[in-house]
Design a protein that fits this description.
The protein is mostly helical. The protein has a domain of 50 residues. The chain has four helices and no strands. The protein is globular, with a radius of gyration of 12 Å.
Length: 80
């Protein structure tokens, strides 16, 4: 598990659903804008030391908004 998002073809161009978790939306969206967001987050993750990647990925994928946001900021601060 070294990737934040599933590696698949995306064909869903719909907007985020009410109460949809951010990760779920990012992982399903086919729009080029969100493809770039996924690419950027994956790039940031590639700079994190291997022993810490699994924890961040787990938090991103947890389905819990608080965990997602915590992992996002941890990843962002690491990149900065």
């Amino acid at each position: 598990m070294t990737s934040l998002f599933s590696e698949r073809d995306r064909d869903d161009w719909s907007r985020a659903l009410p109460n949809e978790e951010i990760y779920a939306f990012l992982d399903r969206s086919a729009t080029p804008y969100y493809a770039e967001v996924r690419r950027l987050l994956e790039s940031w993750l590639s700079h994190v030391p291997d022993p810490h990647k699994a924890g961040l990925i787990g938090q991103f994928r947890s389905g819990n908004r608080h965990n997602f946001e915590s992992a996002f900021w941890e990843l962002y601060l690491h990149e900065v």
